Amino acid sequence: MKKEFVFNPELDEKMAAWHQFTKEQEKQKNTMRPCVTISRQFGCQAHEVAKDLEKQLQNTIAFPQNWLTLDSDLLQKLTQDAGLTGVNFENELNPVFGSFSKMLFTRKQYSKPHEVYCYLKQAIRYFASTGYCIILGRGGVLLTQDLPNCLHVRLVAPLEDRVQIIMNKYNMKEAEASTYVVKHENQRNQFIYRFNQTSLDSPHLFHLVINTAKHHSEEIVDVIEDYIRRKFPESIQQRSYLWALSQDGFRETSPQAFA
Questions:
Q1: What is the pLDDT of residues 153-187, one digit of tens each?
Q2: How many angstroms separate the CA atoms of 221 and 172, rounded?
Q3: Which helix (H) or strand (E) holds 114?
Q4: Domain ranges of the chain
Q5: How far is it, in rounded angstroms, from Cα 65 to Cα 1?
Q6: Does domain 31-226+233-239 have CATH number 3.10.20.90?
Q7: Is the pTM of this model over 0.90?
Q8: DSSP designation for 3
Q9: Which of 129, 130, 138 shows the shortest CA–CA distance to 46?
Q10: Which of 25, 36, 15 is nearest to 225 (CA)?
């Protein structure tokens, strides 16, 4: 039986704050609320980039508050809240770990992977269309290609750079880290193909393709923020106006002052 996505803002504190702010923004019908999807090759430190991007967008005058990062942990909360249990997508692609995953949940109703991903599709599109959201992985770029408020970013790097990152992060030797990167990269590619019958190899899917071996996280975040400012100027103007009101006790200031 198909499970319909139902948003529950009480599930997470940050989600509740984001929900409250976006509800207020719904009054601004002509303002396009931006969303960023981040896809990456394994080992490009996308979690760090997403975390830094959310922090910067929260603290800048253009986007002072209430951005939300929709990552694997938050998506896991959403599926569990819906009563969908027992699926680890990466493990499902491995016959040994997949069987073990099923054994772990023998006392619960086991959810089929396609059923769970169908639910995740609805959730991802809900957050993306609402805006002020960073969607990390899970094929978000493919699920939101038709949404005009979405900015799609792809993080890439040479294999040797990604291996070095994993070596440093997990204290692995080079051969072990190389095997680890290739294995997880293949699992992600299989995941995307299994549920979307396509791949992320085409640069035409993205607005920005960034080589993380050439840029630090701070530089990447600056590039993305600048692109958002240029692509969604009306959104920035409106939120800057609201920010000024909240900071100055609702002083008499028009949105045109921020143009």
A1: 999 999 999 999 999 989 989 899 899 999 988 88
A2: 28
A3: helix 113-130
A4: 31-226+233-239
A5: 38
A6: no
A7: no
A8: P
A9: 138
A10: 36
